[in-house]
Design goal:
Number of strands: 3
Shape: rod-shaped
Radius of gyration: 32 Å
Largest sheet: 3 strands, antiparallel
Distance between the termini: 19 Å
Structural class: mainly alpha
Helix content: 55-70%
Number of domains: 2
């Protein structure tokens, strides 16, 4: 069973949000503004074209406007798929490369789009004008007369057939666009998954975090905890730098890391404080819990990134 154009369009829209390679810090902004505009245009034009039969009224002017709008909607769909193709690097595809799509475009140009100049690029030029008589407009389609300097041509538009042919051919190209997106994401994940971020929290890191906590009254343990704070800061800073270098930094990771560093600063101040205030140890314990909690939250984010990188593209 063939997949509808709207279904593929929805998949592309979802993948553009879910795939790493299409995140805002990695993509070409100009191309992706065009991409999202094209997916919206594809949806709107599809809904408009499907409304032809329901929109036909008794008023002759309204009927003529519906005919114009139907052909224009198919044209917009074709241009939208062309734009999507360009956005993912499939520059060789054009609607005019397909005989049936070209016929639909020419029908639009001859009847409603640019009748006076529709044949300007033909060799030899074949300019025309056209009308769509009211008597030739029904809920199933319409027929127009195209006038050339050397004769007349009738162009019949079977709405159901035009919709079907346009959708089938555009859906085939949309599947090529989807395959291109999948290919880019698959390559990216395979490359990035070879260097998981979770290694920053392996080996000695759990021990460092455990030994960060200490009894401030224990003169032997405080220097050890101070050195662990330095080592933890270096580890987390290394993670932050690599996240940035590889394009995985986000407001969520930055927030957790900033809080971890702020907490480490506060812990170090408490360890440097030689006062005997009774609440200093309690403050230290509360701050440590906050640091530990933000590290756990950061680890969850990192695990999610690594898990997504390790998930195969269907």
């Amino acid at each position: 069973m063939s997949v509808s154009l709207s279904e593929i369009r929805e998949r592309l829209h979802r993948k553009s949000r879910d795939y790493f390679v299409f995140e805002s810090n990695r993509r070409d902004e100009t191309k992706w503004r065009m991409f999202y505009g094209a997916t919206d245009a594809l949806l709107d034009a599809g809904q408009a074209a499907m409304s032809y039969s329901r929109a036909i009224a008794s008023d002759s002017g309204v009927k003529l406007l519906v005919c114009y709008g139907f052909l224009q909607a198919l044209y917009v769909q074709q241009d939208a798929v062309r734009t999507l193709s360009l956005a993912v690097g499939l520059e060789g595809w054009r609607p005019n490369n397909d005989k049936r799509l070209r016929q639909i475009r020419d029908t639009r140009n001859r009847l409603t789009g640019h009748p006076a100049w529709a044949g300007e690029n033909e060799k030899p030029r074949r300019l025309s004008s056209a009308i769509i008589p009211d008597r030739n407009i029904t809920q199933d389609g319409f027929r127009g007369h195209v006038y050339y300097d050397d004769g007349i041509e009738d162009l019949a538009v079977d709405v159901r057939l035009f919709l079907k042919d346009n959708e089938e051919r555009l859906a085939a190209q949309m599947e090529c666009i989807e395959m291109k997106m999948d290919e880019e994401e698959r390559h990216f994940r395979n490359e990035q998954a070879a260097r998981p971020f979770c290694t920053y929290f392996e080996n000695e890191f759990p021990y460092l975090l455990q030994r960060l906590h200490c009894d401030l009254a224990d003169a032997g343990r405080v220097p050890q905890a101070q050195s662990r704070a330095i080592m933890i800061r270096e580890t987390i800073n290394g993670l932050r730098e690599e996240l940035g270098e590889r394009g995985f930094n986000s407001s969520t990771t930055s927030d957790h890391i900033d809080k971890i560093f702020a907490g480490l600063d506060l812990l170090e101040r408490r360890m440097d404080d030689t006062s005997t205030l009774s609440n200093t140890q309690h403050e230290f314990d509360v701050i440590y819990d906050g640091v530990e909690g933000n590290i756990d939250s950061l680890k969850d984010v990192i695990r999610d990134i690594d898990a997504r990188l390790g998930t195969p593209i269907a």
